[in-house]
Amino acid sequence: MGNPGPAGIGIVLRDGKGNVVTQVMKYLGQTTNNVAEYLALLYALEEAQARGVTELLVRTDSELLAKQVSGEYRVRDETLRLFHDLAIEKMRHFASCRVRHVGRQDNAAADHLAAAAVESRFDTAVKRVPAGG
Predict the structure, then answer these.
(1) What is the largest CA-CA distance in the chain?
(2) Domain total for the chain?
(3) Contact 79, 126 (CB under 8 A)
(4) DSSP-derived 3-state class of residue 44
(5) Within 10 A of 63 (CB to CB), how many other CB atoms are there?
(6) pLDDT number for residue 121
(7) Is the pLDDT score of 132 beyond 70?
(8) C-alpha span between 87 and 95 (Å, rounded)
(9) Rounded Cα distance, 104 and 115, in Å
């Protein structure tokens, strides 16, 4: 897969005890890794807000995304700036919302869902996967 190339998102929403509440996957078509990471964040924020979550910790294996959202890095790309600004606005709906960079191995479940979305080309809508698998 190149960049840009076929992309998908995978989201695993867990409760405060670490139990999986829902899993989401969506095929995005051709886009860049950075755009896919921002779209995953936006979908995660929407999913959490729809479920009444008030405190959220987003774990992402995208260091760029985490550092841009935290304000440590500037957003220079115009397309990413639009997604960034929208994400910051959505984050304000939570009493607490942080984005933390984790290693890819610590984000394996979401990474697996994103890869499955690309493989299946499930592109008509967001697919919610049962919490058990």
Answers:
(1) 39
(2) 1
(3) no
(4) helix
(5) 14
(6) 82
(7) no
(8) 15
(9) 13
The residues near 123 (Cβ < 8 Å, ≥ 6 apart) are: 26, 27, 28, 29
pLDDT one-digit tens code per residue, 30-75: 999 999 999 999 999 999 999 999 999 999 999 999 999 999 999 9
Q: How far apart are CA 63 and CA 78, in angstroms?
A: 19
Q: What are phi and psi of 42, to 5 degrees?
A: -60, -45
What percent helix, strand, coil does the chain show, rounded to 5? 45, 30, 30
| Local confidence band at 129 (pLDDT 50, 70, 90 cut-offs) | low
Q: What is the CATH number of the domain that holds 38?
A: 3.30.420.10
Residues 43 and 26: their CA atoms lie apart, in Å, by 10
* Percent of the chain topping pLDDT 70: 89
Q: CA–CA separation, 121 vs 117, rounded Å?
A: 6
What does the pLDDT look like over 86-114, one tens digit per residue? Answer: 999 999 999 999 999 999 999 999 999 99
Residue range(s) defining the domain that contains residue 99: 5-129
Query: What's the Rg (C-alpha) of the chain?
Result: 14
